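Pasting two entries for a bug report.
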Amino acid sequence: MATGRNPVADCLALAALPGLEQMSAALTSGSSSVWGKHPESMLILLGARAAFGSLNAAASALRTTGLWEDMRASAARVGRVLPTRPPTENQWWHLRRRGGHELGGPLAEAFAESAIDVARAVGLLTPRSPRWHRPRRENVVYGDGSLIAGLSDVRVDPETGEVIGSRARFDGGGPGPRLGEVFIGKDGTAAGTGLPVAMVGCHGGMRWQRVVLGVDIYSDRNEVAAAMRLFEGLLARAQGTVHAVVYDGLLPGAGQQWLMRRGVVPIVPMAEAKERARFVTLPEELRQRRRSAGCAGKRDKAPKARLQVHPLEAAEHWTGMGLCVHRLYSIDGVLVALQGREEVSLDAPVAPQVDLRFEPRPGGMALIGTYRVPCRHGSFVHSIDLSANRTGRRSGGGQPAFVDVLRPIDPVEASYELAGYREDAESAFNTLQRALPHDRRASSLRPGDFLCDVVGVGLWMNAVAWDVHGAQHTPTGRENYAAVMRSEKAKRRRKRT
């Protein structure tokens, strides 16, 4: 599988994963007859499905080998009692039929409630003194989303509206072909058919230190809306331990302002400038060097050729010669200061960030960035409320925010960290997609049913992280933990030399 472990070790870790009782209590409050006497075993089967690659393979391994007895012993070490017989695939399908298609939503909510405890068990999202300009990786959460295509290739022709593909024949005498949500792509034009999934998570500095904190199907076809719902619940549960949120360029200024009002730094890359917008061209020799600046995303993504340019405001200070005025611009999220007849270019003097802090304001917090503006008469500091709107400038019916064009985290100075933060999200979501029962395909076009599969992958990924970095509950977990610690010691030795 994607993590390089064997499914037997993963199942042993699943059997002792903390939080299963919490999930069971939330799920059986009104439907205990549906879940049976041992709902924890059904949740373990759901996670084992991701470990083995299919429900039949997982149920068969539990039934025909001694694995279930070993799992019972693993669970007993943490005080959990599992039934003498393992759950079967027929019991799971019966649960789905009896529980209806509303099962996925409550299951995802219960999973998110318990995942925060797993994150803290492995050393993530624990109370630490915040560093707003360079947030610690352990206190950074990320979000991502994508369209998961159905198992069949049934689709609607965007020009004719005709249903085409396998299983698409319909004679009018029965139910029509099963189609997922028609999803409008990130560019606002391309349409696809499938189920759109959003995920949030966190990742530490070690290889296995990765926890899924929540998943959702965004039936309103809006990835950002689903991610913000997940972030809202996560921030309420995390109680101030989330210092920064990483997302892609889809997150608008309004969403970033919402995060800042709650004391969280948004980290979002600048998109490449459109040709009709104001921009400066990046020379070829600099494109590769700046490739990761602003957490550009996937490694195979082409580097930007055009950097966005936005006028911001004027900064004034008194000198021995009188009042000195500087025009402030942003170039790809970096603050530059111009004076006199100077033109915006890549050689424009950069105003480095010297401080980033939160200050209380009515209705929430304000993120204040302080910059040192270079001047031939003597540099001076200038502060900008990044959570405020840019006064005097309107776009449509509202005012664009400073954070739309000026990044709180300097995308040049912190390019290495920003690229690592974004790669965390890409890596986790890629693992989730590959671990789905049909490898990046939706086993069911019913959102509630498919969401159960996604939650199972999240349980499996969290069990791996908890085993290695939490309790080292299995021999594989202890071996991997020892290997990680040896690697960390080697890194420290190389830094010292």
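Entry 2 (this is the one that rendered wrong in the viewer):
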Amino acid sequence: MYRSVGLICAVILFGTSSTGAQYSATVTIQANQPGAVVSSNLFGSFFEEINHAGDGGIYGEMVRNRSFAESSSPDFWSLTTKGTATGTMTVDTSLPINKDHLASLKVTMTSGSGSLAAVNDGYWGMSLQSGATYDLNLYARSAAGFSGPIQARLQNSSGSTVYAQGSIGGLTTNWQQFSMSLVSSGTDTNGQLALNISTVGSMWLGEISVFPRATFNSRTNGLRPDLASLLVANCPSFICYPGGNFIESYNVTNAVRWKKTIGDIASRPGHLNDSWGYWSTDGYGLDEALRQCEDMGMQMLYGMNAGLCLGYNGDTNNTVPLDQMGPWVQDVVDLIQYANGDTNTTWGALRSANGHPEPYNMNYLEIGNENGGSYLNDRYTLFYDALKSNYSSIHLIASGGNWTGGPPWSRPVEIVDEH
């Protein structure tokens, strides 16, 4: 039971020992005699792209495999036909949208009458709400002699009920971007997107996105408001992002590189999340995370790859040699300029062009994730010297608790992440 006496709280505990004896104890808390001052910055959130925490989770995108980069097969897409229509659907790389998106979906109606559709179920079904607006964006081109139209539909899982639809016409042999707003007439937690054609011919589709108009703080390319609101309710003072093994990967080529996670989603190639076995669109990238910090009133604690991947042992697949660390160190220096720099700086100007002229005032940066020992120590030296000579006020956090071989010792360590 609990008994409050002024500023003194007594907690009386009752119990029974393993031998059956009864016992009691009293703990008295003198709230008018506070002890150590505890920092308000110690309680925060930790994000990692694991189990679809981002793609399919807090990130608002509803189409799964929107850029067809996951494999040579059209994963998570299916081909449906009505009437006597026949056709094919394949991933094609013959004419990329741009240098960042090499693959597209080729859909061909070869014969018959009726219709043929490329269908996407999203992440375990698209959750549609009656009266809600959904923004469809895609790139499309066609073979000579075919100009559409494409009928875009939000529908139920069998295709028997259409909740919203619109038409896209004027396709040419060159890539064009098309957009439309779709308002759902019904609620369905297992909806689909269907892109239908009813004329013989071929079309190519790329970077297909369906986004709810209602996002957290009405941000473009933003977060699901339901999940983001739950985070706000926790009153976090910071977020550790992008977090965990996702930072490292098993192979250097799959490590997170922040410069590929900013700006237009059509310029984000995405990468294989080989730590957890699926593709990451990087749609919930640095821009979105920094805006999230601003919207939630918390600090960004960005975690940088230290040139070490999971199982690092000197192999160039998972360890960047010291004499090749220059670009990795420069990435960290550029990151601070992107987040905090004036608009007359190279990266500050790009941040402004990406929609945020004001600096974010990022203060915390972590070097490495669960790294330690001499491998981390040698690389921490490079990061520390470069960062402190350019941005002395940045607080550096070193990975490398004692269980990983200890934190670095060659340079001062302000904070250690024991992870």
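Dev reply: Rendering is fixed now. As a check, the viewer should reflect this: The helical segments are 54-58, 225-233, 245-248, 286-296, 326-340, 346-353, 373-390.
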